[in-house]
């Protein structure tokens, strides 16, 4: 069996195993120059998902947001220690604590002190989410984000304590970077990340073409319960991107070989724990030990994960169009192919 055949066998075995328990799944694997993508189940539109099937990648978006941040640092647009207040619209109010300002680094490492969500999710929203996968942020705009920011209190002094995961924080980060660049978030990611890396199917909901919508999977709460889409217009930096297994693998290949891309310095910056940052984080990326960088994602009807072992030249992504993930299976696959 050749190296490529062995890689495909691993991907197929994993996809078939996950596909027995999920509505649909795409498994993508890369080792060195070899790549394999295998789908199982269905997209909810009468087809088996494949390398070109678009899904909501949820919080994997955060590593794109962090790369946008790092690219701006490399270009000299801002610094990691820049207070986020300086990049927001005039009049925007940002909470502080103990005379410490929330910086871009704090937001990208989940050490800002902001709570997980910018809006309190009530019983009605929770029930609609559980029953229909309803977007709990539906109707939540960028203006609502700034209003919530102005009225919130930090749980702790920015930069202290461990990692406290915050969609609120990454929503603010994405909003601030886009405003500073004079673009919306999707446009900024397209121009500064997707085009340089050759990603052709990574976009926000409002950027999708009719042809891309036709290739998009339907999300599901359970195997037979469709879920509503999650555009996340008010929090795009936290989880609004759609993508394909092909694009995610291309993005992961850039993490494995940053010197082969136009974003070398920025990519390397996202892999590092910044000065004063938590050991378990790069910029956006989580660390599993010293060898693995990963991030997963979840919306009303999708669960996703992307993981790399830079020292081994291996990468894995698993994209599921159901609200039941496969993180452990993905990380086990990454270990087997490394």
UniProtKB/TrEMBL annotation:
**Where does the record place the region Disordered?**
211-232
Which InterPro entries does this chain map to? Answer: AmpC-like, Beta-lactam-related, Beta-lactam/transpept-like
| Domain Beta-lactamase-related residues, every copy | 19-328
- For this entry, the protein name equals CubicO group peptidase, beta-lactamase class C family
